[in-house]
Structures are given as structure tokens and as C-alpha cells.
Amino acid sequence: MIEQEETKELEKIQRRTKILSEIEKKIPPLPHVIRNIINLTMYEEVSVQKLAEEIAKEPNLVADIMRYINSRTFSTIRVSSLETTIVFLGVYNIARLTLAFWIKRLQETELKGYIYKKAELALQSFIGGYTSKRIAEISFPHLSQNAFAVASMRNIGKIILDFYVFLEKKEMLRSVLSGKDMREAEEEILGISHQEVNYLIAEAWNLPDDIKIPLRYFKSPHLLPNDTPDYIKNLTFIVHVGDIIAQMTGVGAGFDNMVEKFSKKSFDVLKIKESDIEMIFYETFLKVETTSEEFFKEIPLKL
């Protein structure tokens, strides 16, 4: 019995080592424009005009950002220029939203392992973006735009890990149906979770801690290092709760989106009540159709 357990553990380590050695080759490069925008807002004071000129190099990003700021789902204002949008949201948030919208396009793909049809993963990510933004508006309003952005990026690791999930689909399904959450199933069978892959991608792209730490720990915020800054801890718990509420809607969900339990610390950290969760869930469910129409017109809703 002990020998069998040791053999399984050795096999898991070997799978993890193999996957880790291949992941680096699969990480898509961060476009020059996106890298410039992140660097401009991280390392220097940047004018609204300069930032607008940089974003304008990618018309698709401009269209997505303008759609966002004028969205019935995500905003209460209407503006007509990118410069005004930057002023309203701030350069810090614009940089993260730009990254989130670029990642949205990466997520508009079919995943055979996790069983997502084309763009369903992106829709699920956006639903989590909405729920996370709403939680932040209640708990820490200054984090609301960043919460949307980070939550919208939270599934990027699934794109890289999907091939390996597909190879082990039967075992993965068996593990999830036995009661394990997806993080536990991934770690048990593959030796690595998609949250770890999120972090590896964020490291490869040299993203700041307020993006890469929540991307790594949003499924397990209780494991955050003790020296994590409060604003990053708060952001991680926001995305954690937002992710679970998004799963509860059942919209755009693959087989991995079995509803998980909230971390026990969530309510204390975020100072929210069960009634807040119920309210946001109800709001989210009502907003799904609008979100799909505004950002994912080609996706038939599964309600």
C-alpha cells in the first residue's frame, strides 16, 4: 500500500515536471503595445494624451474599452472619447483593463479539456468580473475597476493547461464528481493547478503583484503569505467570492465549475453579509443577457 502511494506521488511529480518544462513554450508573448501601457503606468508619470496614443495603436482595444465605459452592465456614465475615459477611470485602472480586454480575446477559444465552447470561457470570466466589481463597490470601492480586471483574467491558465486536462479528462471528471474542487483535482492528477499557471504567465509577462498574486490565490485566499499587503489581500478575497458567485449562475460554465465553498475568512475580510451575496447573485443573473449582448453577441446563452 505504501509502495503504491509512493509510486503515485512519483508519477505526479514526473507529470508536474514535464508540464512545467513545456508551459514556458506555450505562454503567448505579451504584445508590445500592452507591455508599453503597463510599463508607462508602472514606472513613470504618464499624460492622458500619451497613454491614449499608445492604446490607439490597437483599435480593438479602444473599441472594447469604449464599449466597457458605455456599457449598461458595467458603467453608469456615457463618454465619447478615449481621453475622457482615461480621466474617469484613471491610468492605473486603464492599464489593467487594457490587459484584461486583450486576455479576453485569448479566452475566446474552444477548450476540449475543460469543455468550453468557443468564447464561453471569456463569458464566464466576464461574469466573474462583474460580480467582483460589485463586491468591491460594497467593501472597497477604490478596488472596483481593478477587481473587474483581475477577475476577468483569472482563467487564463486554463488555456495553457487545457491540453493536459484533455489527456486526463476521465480522471479529472472522476475526481471532480467525487467531491474535489477543480484546484484539488488538477493538483492531484496533473501536479499543478491553473492558478499556478496563472502565476507563471504573469511572471513571464512581468506583471505587478496586484495582478499576479490574486491570480495565484483567488481559489485559496486563506493560503496568502502573511506579509501580503492589505490591498492585495482584499483584492484576492474579492475575486475569490466573485468567482464563486459567477459559478453559481451556471452561465458559460465548463465541467470544472462545480460550486465551491467560500473561504471562512471572506465575510470578515470583506465585511459583507449573506444578504449581499444573495443580492449580487440576483443582480448578476439579471445582467447576464446584457453582458452577452454587449460583449459576446456570437454566444448562445445556456441558462
Features:
single chain, 303 residues, mainly alpha, Hypothetical protein af1432, 16 helices, disordered C terminus
What is the CATH topology of the domain at 8-25 and 108-295?
Hypothetical protein af1432
Query: Roughly how much helix do the residues carry, as a percent range?
Result: 55-70%
Roughly what is the average pLDDT, rounded to an integer? 89
Extract low-pLDDT stretches.
299-303
The CATH architecture term of the domain at 8-25 and 108-295 is Orthogonal Bundle
Rg, alpha carbons: 19 Å
Q: Regarding CATH, which class of the domain at 8-25 and 108-295? A: Mainly Alpha
Estimate the global geometry from the Cα principal axes. globular
The share of residues in extended strands comes to under 5%
Within CATH, the superfamily of the domain at 8-25 and 108-295 carries the name Hypothetical protein af1432
* Main sheet properties: none
Number of strands: 0
Gap between N and C termini: 46 Å
Give the H and E element order: HHHHHHHHHHHHHHHH
Structural class: mainly alpha
Helical region count? 16
